[in-house]
Amino acid sequence: MLLLAFFAFLVCFSWSAAADGGPYNYGMEARSIYARNAATDYITTGIPISTNGTPPLRLEIRDLEKDNATWTLFILALDMMQYTNQSELFSWYQIAGIHGRPFYSWDNVNGPAEDQGNGYCTHVSILFPTWHRPYLALYEQIIYGITQYIATLYPVGSVRDDYVAAANRFRIPYWDWAAVPSSAHTTADSLMTPTISVDGPNGVQTIHNPLFDYDFKPLISDDLPDAPFDVFPRTQRWPSNMTAASVSRNDQMAAALDNSASSLRNRLYNLFTNYQNYTEFSNEAFSNSVYYDSIESVHDFIHGYTGNGGHMTYIEYSAFDPIFFLHHAMIDRCFALWQVLNPDGWIQPEPATYSTFTTTAGDIEDSRTPLTPFRNDSNGGFWISDTSRETAPFGYAYPETVGGPGVDIKSVVTNAINNLYGTTAPANVVSRDQFRTRRSTSEVHNRALSYANAAGLPHDLVQNNQYSEWIVNIRVRKRALSAPFFIHIFLGVFDPDPVTWPFEPNLVGSHSVFTMAPKGMNSCVQCNPEQVISGTVPLTSALLAEISKGSLHTLDSSQVVPHLNQNLRYKVAMADGTEVGNVDSLSINVVSAPVQKPDGELPIWGAMEVQIESVICG
Ligand SMILES: [Cu+2]
After folding, report:
1. Which of the two ends of the chain, N or C, has the fewest CB atoms closer than 10 A to its terminal CB?
2. How far is the CA of 437 from the centre of ligand 1 (A)?
3. Is residue 321 in a domain?
4. Residue 157 CA, ligand 1 centroid: distance in Å
């Protein structure tokens, strides 16, 4: 007995002595007890809603953090998942592994043998938004189950009652990388600290922060065979080098995201206001139309900018980084907001661009295609897009979509989009009086506002009740290079050193091309190497900054086109900072459109017109 206590002390000691903290010490075998009792059949049920029928909300991570008890349970549940044996179906390794590597079947859900060199996730596909919905629901259901268990470990009485109530209202948080942030940076601080203090059932302890990274336990190089992931012992963001000794550089990530925050906000605002067709909105396949952007392309930007060579940069490695699920909850929320505005927008059948673990490229996908491996009954049935169209069956809602008696949900969503993503948008900035009344609330907000508040803007930007929006359209083969890459758009001078580009003051925005690593690319024999994807970089905010500096006087093409021809340039770089000269298939043009902004409504877009056929490489 004494020996056992001594051993426990030693184990504890080595955990707490680790520089980045260890797991939470429950003072008992909480992990193995939970693992023994965890469900053995993995039907994605969603979370049952309690009596009054209103689903609990998925909150922004900084809002969830204000709810101490729920936040504590969330951190402890992630900690338990991450310290669960990697062979368990509900372990971090297995749940993350559904998305991409190690390309193993999950819960024995199999497809054609030739497709098993892929994960289950769907990209460049009409199923991109809907496949990730049950995926997140499964993740949420597992964490919810763990929070229920941990709540019962608190002392009986009012303390336990509080935690049980907190566990019942728990839903996974999202990370809003587009809104003007409520903290100093676009990135929540809680994602960037290696350790975190939690007041668990066995008292306050400083543990490894499960939102910071995932430490492979152990790293299995054969499962993650592309360099450098075969040597990284833990997930990396902006890796400091390509060896096992690499450390994440979250400060660089945060600075780069802050520099692009207003560009990303404008992209999202444009997407909500100018994209009404589901096929265009849902995925980044270039469709020969004027609608170059998509929720998937915006999503790719975050993958590229959070990873920058680390796990998030590559499709098949990304889900191991805990930031992945926060990011995808945000994407699911954007999808839900868009659905409120476009209730009739839905899936039209299309052939799959790429293979997944259970689908062969070229197979027709439609709203009844099984979203594998997410079972929804015990008879072998799976969730399909039609059953995943609403969030209610999964037992959650977002603050803007929850509705209620007498609530006009469309106007709630419209107001939220205007307030969260529209305050720095050109549509609201061109009206100077309205602009002047705004007050900045953070560093990032300051930067966005400084675009236009220096010298004030002329009154005549709005004529006949409309102004001109300017957009850079980018299209390129997804596999033009053998790895993910960035296309950066600059207006004005910039440092020739590629590592500075994400931080350049004259960077207007970036397009991030999110692909697999070479081994995964090569294993997909049916995939179309010619597939072209597209995205946008909004230009109007940068033009307004030029106007406020006096180097441009109007948004009319007579002045803007010569100004852009002289000052607009692009550059291509790999995540490691290597510059790339010519990229075959890359095409970058500039379009403009007349836009109206009725008070309290969303902007109304007119027809796009090509203004510059081909932007010059800088
Ligand atoms: Cu993703």
Report:
1. N
2. 37
3. no
4. 42
The C-alpha atoms of residue 560 and residue 82 are separated, in whole angstroms, by 53
Residue 605 maps to a domain: yes
Q: What is the pLDDT of residues 266-324, one digit of tens each?
A: 999 999 999 999 999 999 999 888 899 999 999 999 999 999 999 999 999 999 999 99
Give the 3-state secondary structure of 313-354.
HECCCHHHCCHHHHHHHHHHHHHHHHHHHCCCCCCCCEECCC
Its domain, for residue 468, covers 410-617
- In the predicted model, is pLDDT for residue 454 greater than 50? no
Alpha helices in 275-322 (DSSP H): 278-282, 295-307
Question: Rounded to the nearest whole angstrom, what is the distance from the C-alpha of residue 273 to the centroid of ligand 1?
Answer: 23
Rounded to whole angstroms, the maximal C-alpha distance in the chain is 86
Say if strands 485-491 and 507-513 run parallel, antiparallel, or are unpaired.
antiparallel
Residues of the chain by 3-state class (helix, strand, coil), percent to 5: 40, 15, 45
Distance from the alpha carbon of residue 464 to the mean position of ligand 1, in angstroms: 41
Name the residue with tokens 């007041």. 199
Please check the confidence at residue 3 and state whether its pLDDT lies above 80.
no
Q: Name the amino acid, one letter, at 236.
A: Q
Give 315 Cα–ligand 1 centroid separation in angstroms: 7
* Residues in contact with 86: Cβ distance below 8 Å, sequence separation at least 6, in sequence order: 92, 93, 94, 216, 217, 218, 220
Q: Is 495 exposed, middle or buried (0-12, 13-18, 19+ CB in 10 A)?
A: exposed
The residue with greater pLDDT, 59 or 2, is 59
Question: Does a structural domain hold residue 535?
Answer: yes
Q: Is residue 446 part of a domain?
A: yes
Counting the structural domains of the chain, the total is: 1
**Ligand 1 mean position to 188 CA, how many Å?**
18
DSSP secondary structure string for all residues of 89-122: TTSHHHHHHTTBTB---STT----GGGTTS-S--
Distance 399 CA to ligand 1 centre (A): 22
Q: Which residue has the higher pLDDT, 90 or 433?
A: 90
Task: Determine the Cα–Cα distance for residues 586 and 600; give it in Å rounded to an integer.
Answer: 39
Residue carrying structure tokens 């609608």: 291
| Confidence (pLDDT) at 524 | 67
- For residue 434, pLDDT over 80 is answered with no
Nearest-angstrom CA–CA distance, 124 and 289? 16
Q: For 145-154, 320-329, 362-371, 525-534, which range has the lowest pLDDT when averaged over its residues? A: 525-534
- CA distance between the termini of the chain: 72
Give residue-wise pLDDT tens across range 10-47.
Answer: 333 334 434 578 999 999 988 888 887 776 668 999 89
Measured between alpha carbons, how far is residue 219 from residues 14, 161, 228, 244, 347 in Å? 20, 39, 12, 11, 39
